[in-house]
Amino acid sequence: MSQEIDFLAVVGKLVSLSLVESATTHPTQPANYRVTTILESLLETVLIQEEWQTTRQQAVRKIHQAWWEENDNRTEAEALEIVRLGLLANEQEIAVSVGNTIASNWVNDSRFVEALELCKQVLAVFQDYRILGTIARAEEVLGFVQEAVTHYQQALDLCPEEELQEKATILNNMAGVFAQQGNIPKAIPLWEQNLEIFEQIGDVKGKAVTLNNMAQVIAQQGDIPKAITLWEQNLEIFEQIGDVKGKAVTLNNMAGVIADQGDIPKAIALWEQSLEISEQIGDVKSKATTLNNVAQVFAQQGDIPKAIALWEQSLEIKEQIGDVKGKAATLNNMAQVFAQQGDILKAITLWEQNLEIFEQIGDVKGKAITLNNIAQVIADQGDIPKAIALWEQVVSTLAQLSAYGDLVTVLSNLGLTDESNGLVYLAQAVWLTLRIQATLEQTIRLIPALYNRVPQGDELEALLGATAIFFCNYRGEGHPQLEELQYPSFKMLSAAAVAQGFETDEAFHTWLVQQRLNDPEYFLFRLNQRLEEIVGDGWLFDCSQVVGESGSANISAQYRVGWS
């Protein structure tokens, strides 16, 4: 007992001298004390480096045990202090595991900037696959896309062979980045590696998530039957394992694609199933997402009051649960409808709320897409110079993000709006479609827009017509509107032949062979040359970065397939 009294007396004296301070945050907790920075500097002159390091390590292990392992009411401040001390004491597992938990939670809560900074602090001391994977998630949203890809690759390289679950997560996230860039051929193999891992470890839920990601991208590319097949596999898995939440999400995704195909009754039926499940299990976030999607369909059908009522329900839920990104998506949909209805002021007001949200959470892509929408409305109102200035700002942001699919859309908007410089903008957009997996609809809308700007009889007309037909053949398998997209493609090539004086079928085929328009390795390469000549020094983004990602400046080498 006397020793304990003496110890407490000493501690009390040290506290009174501000050499030790209490670290106890609650009366019921055991007494904890920490050495202040004043005493730290004094002890460093007394203890040798090994003793000092051992003391630090013992201290952080004790604090980690008390504040983390044995504490059911952890606070953020305590967790951050554990990370700080873990880094000082060179306790890698403590610093990394706790730091990664905090950073991952921050990313999930849209606190991307804070997550980025914390990960940087940890990586300055330890190169760990977990932190590398988490910082990449934050970087992707904040616009540091190339850094994200680099960090994902480093995470894969450092991930232990036995950590298959973590490896699968990294592969999935990398695939998502490539899909955003329009590099679908690179994304799909990563997801296929994911599926192999999940098969190997028996993770059926992970397999279902991956199938869903693949289905969404494949649907965007226009192969609806294949996407539906993947979602149906998903539903089977969720039925088997009793994952009703996963089933609700899959039904929601399927419904969106089916609605886009025009089968509204079937889509509504699927959304109603999804809503019923969300209600049963109390999944308010999924319910809000589904309400938002159903509202979109009613708006497209012209039932604006019903759409607005559903969106307001969705917003109310998202406000309650703090889903800021979901709130922004709903505000954007509402703004677009108000703009279509002619209430421009209300639309702009909602988009400005969106911009505030994206500024707050550091979502660069969300901000760029919102500015694109505002620019389109401003252009429709006749203020072309202001719209062009906004679009040029958006181009710079999307190029920074490597969001090339969205960049094609904005360049197209610029090209169709700007009479004086439209040819240069459209040439850049078509140049990008040669390098990324833009959707077939986007490509076939874009090529005729450039075609119509080209002088009649110019070689470029034939090159564009041949390229449009080629893409219909190359990317059109399974596309429900393939015949509709093929028609303007054949029309362009036929008109180019007639402009050259080749009007009969026999003359047309002779001309086709003479001009090597049946040889994609030639006409794609030649088209690329002509586009770069048109753009000259008028690039709005660093085109060398895109060439580097494609792996070769010789664009025709990417398409070693037959053509007829």
Terminal CA distance reads 95 Å
How many distinct helices? 28
Secondary-structure element series: HEEHHHHHHHHHHHHHHHHHHHHHHHHHHH
Mean pLDDT: 85
Q: Judging from the principal axes of the Cα atoms, what is the shape?
A: globular
Strand residue percentage: under 5%
Number of strands: 2
What portion of residues is helical?
over 70%
Low-confidence segments: 1-5, 548-554, 560-564
Largest sheet: 2 strands, antiparallel
Return Rg in Å: 29 Å
Q: Based on helices, strands and strand pairing, what is the structural class? A: mainly alpha
Strand order of the largest sheet: 1-2
General description of the model:
The chain is globular, with a radius of gyration of 29 Å. The chain has a two-stranded antiparallel ribbon. 76% of the residues lie in helices and 1% in strands. Mean pLDDT is 85; it is low at 1-5, 548-554 and 560-564. The protein is an all-alpha fold and 564 residues long.
Summarize the structure.
The protein is mainly α and 564 residues long. The protein has 28 helices and two strands.
Give descriptors for this structure.
single chain, 564 residues, mainly alpha, Serine Threonine Protein Phosphatase 5, Tetratricopeptide repeat, two-stranded antiparallel ribbon, 1% strand, globular, disordered C terminus
